[in-house]
Amino acid sequence: MTPLQPSTRPMAARPLDRHPVTLKPMRHAALALLTSLLTGVASAGPIVAVGSSYSVYLAGTTSMNALNTGAVAFDANASFFTRAGLNLSLTESQVDHGNGRHTITIRMSADGDLFPAVGEGAQVGVGTLGTPLSFMRDVFLESGRISYFGADDMAYFTTGNLADDYRVQYFSGAWSGYFSQPNGVFVNGNVGGRDTRGLSFVFDVSEIPEPNAAALAGLALLVLGTSRRFGARATGETQATP
User: Fold this and answer.
1) What is the Cα gyration radius of the chain?
2) Which of 25, 54, 126, 187 shows its CA 20 to 30 Å from the CA of 76?
3) What's 98-160 look like in SS3?
4) Do 194 and 121 form a contact (C-beta atoms < 8 A)?
5) Is 59:66 a contact under the CB 8 Å cutoff?
6) By three-state DSSP, how is residue 123 classified?
7) β-bridge pairing 79-83 and 56-60
8) pTM for this structure?
9) Is 62 in contact with 230 (CB distance < 8 Å)?
10) Residue 157, beta-bridge partner list
């Protein structure tokens, strides 16, 4: 008996058009969804609600002269106060660096020494007596620093990153907008008698993705991965059938 020989005749490839027909629209939709989510974070704009309120507190540990500004509008326009015979101005600004990162700056300036008692410390805070910064989306406080300025408008002292120093106590999750906490202040020693004409708070924050956005991004990536696997399988099956 003549042994059967392997067949060399052409065989029609199995129809696999169903993959490109159904997966291409899914792939395009997933890409569009993922792009819109990423674009939404990258072009978020202001993170502090323009026109919202916040407050600043400051006092000397010896001279006292406590000042609570009360609710001040975050609108890039200066607000004015008097304290112990001095004229003070308060300004604020914010910069969107893209990709969900922002810098917020609050600056207090005076026409005389804010802390006149030699060697005294400064007690300062944001939202101390009840009006914290108000954010449009949840943020994580990456960095928070306080600087003090002399009559030459140069910073003579800047703290370390207080957000890291007090991460466990105050800044472990989404930032509440208080610095440090309700009814709390930071105390920086030995600033008295140095003709301190100003101080600033500089905050670097990053947006916390919303749970729904994170879930949608994960779904979009899953669809993209699945469509690629099916596309590769379809190509491989078509080429493997002589």
Assistant:
1) 30
2) 187
3) ECCEEEEEEEEEECCCCCCCCCCCEEEEECCCCCCCCECCCEEEEEEEEEEECCCCCEEEECC
4) no
5) yes
6) strand
7) unpaired
8) 0.73
9) no
10) 148
- The position carrying tokens 């994170």 is 214
pLDDT digits (tens, 9 = 90+) for 167-221: 999 999 999 999 999 999 999 999 999 999 999 999 999 999 987 544 545 555 5
CB-based contact 205:120 (threshold 8 Å): no
The residue type found at 21 is V
* SS3 category, 241: coil
Name the token pair of 205: 């924050």
Torsion 32-33-36-39 (CA) sign: negative
* Chain centre distance of CA 192: 33
> ω into residue 7 within 30 of 0, thus cis?
no
Q: Token pair of 109, please?
A: 């300036």
Contact 57, 68 (CB under 8 A): yes
